[in-house]
From TrEMBL:
SUPFAM superfamilies from the UniProt entry: Jann2411-like
Top-rank taxon: Bacteria
Protein name: Uncharacterized protein
Phylogenetic classification of the source organism: Bacteria, Bacillati, Bacillota, Bacilli, Bacillales
Stretches the record annotates as Disordered: 55-94
Compositional bias (Basic residues): 82-92
InterPro entries: ABATE_dom_sf
Comp. bias regions, Basic and acidic residues: 70-80
Length: 141
């Protein structure tokens, strides 16, 4: 993982005015041998050193990007530990009561028995034509 903002800032402070080879040697040395300062800590996410600027000195991560990664991992662990909620099943509808039937009839009114042959004839015509009838268009050139 790439170093976070705090780690980059800390290394920039230490390597200011050095040549790239000197800076590389210093960074390698720091990664092997931790600094003795109390405010210099290792980031829990990116594993690079950073200077803790918080007043109580209890920072665990070096910057906002590492904080986001850590919080995302923590939330995933919490979700994995929590028992999953049981899935809700759909309740069966009761049509045996007169009140339920009258309530349903208000929403879904049945067709008039006289209209049923006309509806069936329209469906048959639709099936025989293969769908909606398209208008015949003559293209004039």
């Amino acid at each position: 993982m790439e170093p976070g903002e705090g780690a980059v800032e800390f290394m920039r402070e230490l390597t200011e005015g050095m040549t790239p080879t000197e800076a590389l040697d210093l960074i390698r040395h720091l990664m092997r041998n931790p600094p003795d300062e109390a405010k210099v800590k290792r980031c829990a996410t990116c594993n690079y050193y950073f200077r803790d600027k918080t007043r109580p000195g209890n920072a665990k991560v070096c910057g906002p990007s590492c904080k986001t990664v850590r919080k995302t991992d923590q939330k995933a662990e919490q979700r994995a530990r929590q028992p999953q909620k049981p899935k809700k099943t759909k309740k069966e509808r009761r049509y045996d009561e007169a009140a339920w039937l009258s309530a349903i009839w208000r929403k879904e009114k049945p067709f008039d028995p006289d209209k049923l042959p006309y509806i069936q004839a329209a469906r048959d015509r639709y099936d025989r034509m293969g769908g909606r009838k398209k208008p015949i268009r003559k293209v004039e050139y």
